[in-house]
Amino acid sequence: MIWYIGRRLLQMIPVFLGATLIVYLMAFYTSGDPILALAGDKPISPAVEQQLREQYNLDQHVLVQWLLYLKSVLTFDLGVGFNGRPIWDQIAAAFPTTMRLAIIAVVVESIFGIIAGVISGLRKGKLIDTTLLMLSLLLIATPTFVLGFLAQFVFGLQLGISPINVGRDPSWVNLLLPGFVLGGVSFAYVLRLTRTSIAETATADHVRTATAKGLTRGGVVSRHILRNSLIPVVTFIGADLGALMGGAIVTERVFNIPGIGTLLFSSITSGEAPMIVSLVTLLVIIFLLSNLVVDLLYGLLDPRIRYAK
Amino acid sequence: MTTTSVTPGSAGAPANRDQPLLEIRDLEITFTTSNGPVKGVRSASLEVYPGETVAIVGESGSGKSTTAMAIAHLLAKNGTITGGQILFEGREITHLPEKEIRVLRGDQVGLVPQDPMSNLNPMWRVGSQIQETLQANGVAKGSAAKTRTVQLLEEAGLGDAERRAQQYPHEFSGGMKQRALIAMGLAARPKLLVADEPTSALDVTVQQQILDHLDTLTEELGVAVLLITHDLGLAAERAQHLVVMYKGRVVESGPALQLLQNPQHPYTKRLIGAAPHSPPGDWSPGRSAPRSASRRRRLRTPPPMHPRRPPSARSSATGRSTPAP
Questions:
Q1: Helix (DSSP H) and strand (DSSP E) numbers for chain A
Q2: In a 10 Å sphere around its CB, with 0-12 CB exposed, 13-18 middle and 19+ buried, how is residue A159 labelled?
Q3: What Å distances lie between residue B41 and A159, B101, B309, CA to CA?
Q4: Which residues contact B221 (CB under 8 A, 6 or more apart)?
Q5: CB-CB: which of B72, B123, B181 is closest to A301?
Q6: B115/A205 CB distance under 8 A
Q7: Quick one: which of B70, B17, B22, B20 has its CA closest to B42?
Q8: Do B121 and A203 touch (CB under 8 A)?
Q9: pLDDT tens digits, one per residue of A201-230
Q10: Which of B65, B107, B123, B133 is most worth mutating to test chain A (most A CB atoms within 10 A of its CB)?
Q11: ipTM
């Protein structure tokens, strides 16, 4: 098991190198001249321009820039962002907020999604199933910002139980509403995945055999249907954690939360390559780690895919 | 094969041997499909006496499994009993609510399912799946259930049972899985064991072993067996009483030997003719009988039931080795 985890962690190194290189090249070739963008309409003196170019290594070849960037990652010194604050500090400030937001969203989508999916899957074709399916379709079809504004209007303005603007260093409680909004679409997907999987397992031969043993319906569902149905759901939730971290851009902007999404958005608009690359790399690592956790969960759920010790 | 240690259960001493343990009268089962209702079973009747082995023989789709599954209400979701009666120990159980039928499952009516590959839950250890049966039926709990599980596996002929109980189904061969399923079906000492083609998915050599073992076990425990099979030879070898089903109907039934020697219904004749190990010229002509509708309708009602010989005389009727006279 330890070997397996170690091997998986080692496999992250080439993925890390590849991801940073690709993002670096993309940021370099698509964003135009970042110094001119930084200067905006005001003319910039050649001396200052030259100095900035040297400071950000923009006078070097792109591959050299990439290698210099790798060196800065390994020394935990990502340099200073365009706004004068160290990149590392900016990420460290934004990361916990987004992480909290994503955790709330994942917990919401998992708990509610799986419960609703089980109910729906076991009562396939009944009224409750149809209702839940319609609800999930509605959630999938509604853009996140619409959902966000709606939640702000109802819970923030009408009921007054949640702040509309979350602001800096938010508490878990203040992040609840944005978390629900962020997890809303994924909830619908978890529901649908669970429903299909449950409905399929429920007709399996071994479920009938379990029933024939004299188990209660609850025992059959929890021991013989639910566990066997969870693999596709767990796969989705694991991948979704990564997606929620990076995809929180809309939710963060609607609720004015200074997280990773906001940071990513502003760095893309200003063409701040080191920041973009750092954030994307961070997201890639989170993605890889959550997928590793998913693979380990597979083994826990299904003995047939348990890993060699 | 491991020596078996059989503990006599409650099923060993049925109160009344003259009263059928199971009685199915004019059972009708309807499946709701996208093409409208389909009758899977129409007018099926049979009786199983305590300790007796009765075989339902028929081709796939003849309704034999469906009839048997209906007893413990294990039909697929779209199947419902639309007519007739099922009586267990004289008590009508046709439309019992889920809670009450659950009491019957496991410790009154056990099941050995058809395909060992798909009937064990791949996620749980084999032992814990048997233990579950013991706990659900209040037979044993905790460590007692664990010990009992190992005993049951040994009894079903599984070697090294203690280690095997800790393994997962995918670590078992097909024959071993079927033995585990037999242990499971008999765990709570049911009075009736529904064995739904218990060996069709296995090698011929393993089939013989497992059936022999099942025979010995059920005989020692005094468990009545409702054996479902498409193999007439096998049925005649294992059961005292045969019920032949064809297109959802019981077309013929009677003591095994008599039915083989003097089949009435054309389908039974064809079955006998098609049996690969029937000696030519024996039993009945091997030609396929005409399938005229009028003839079938005439024969729909089974011949009157023969008075059953008591189960103590079991297996003397057919002999265990060959059904041929």
A1: 14, 0
A2: exposed
A3: 60, 21, 28
A4: B6, B8, B9, B11, B12, B186, B189
A5: B123
A6: yes
A7: B70
A8: no
A9: 999 999 999 999 999 999 999 999 999 999
A10: B123
A11: 0.77
What is the CB neighbour count within 10 angstroms for residue B95?
11
> Given the structure tokens 């009408």, which residue do they identify?
A158
Distances (CA, A) of A125 to A133, B68, B78, B91: 10, 27, 12, 34
Nearest Cβ partner of B113 from A205, A217, A219?
A205
* Beta-carbon separation of B106 and A211 below 8 A: no
Count CB pairs under 8 A between chains A and B: 82
Main-chain dihedrals φ then ψ at residue B72, nearest 5 degrees? -95, 20
Taking residue B209's Cβ as centre, other Cβ atoms within 10 Å add up to 17
Quick one: which of B19, B22, B66 has its CA closest to B48? Answer: B22
Q: Which of B316, B310, B317 is nearest to B222 (CA)?
A: B310
CB contacts, 8 Å: B77 with chain A: 203
Do the Cβ atoms of B105 and A211 come within 8 Å?
yes
Tens-place pLDDT, residues A81-125: 777 788 888 888 888 888 899 999 999 999 999 999 999 999 988
Chain A CB contacts of B178 under 8 Å are: none
- CB contact burial A206-230 (16+ within 10 A = b; e otherwise): bbbbbbbbbbeeebbbebbbbbbbb
Distance from CA of A220 to the nearest CA of B (A): 11
A214 close to B (CB below 8 A): yes
Q: Which residues pair with B243 in a beta bridge?
A: B56, B253
For residue A3, the tally of other CB atoms under 10 A from its CB is: 10
**Residue B167 carries which side chain, given as an amino acid letter?**
Q
| Token couple for B208 | 């013989």
Cβ density class A35-70: b for 16+ within 10 Å, e for less: beebeeeeeeeeeebeebeeebbbeeebeebbeebb
What residues in A contact B74, CB-CB < 8 Å? 208, 211-212
Question: How close A226 gets to chain B, by Cα (Å)?
Answer: 11
Q: What is the pTM assigned to this prediction?
A: 0.77
A210 and B123 in contact by Cβ < 8 A?
no
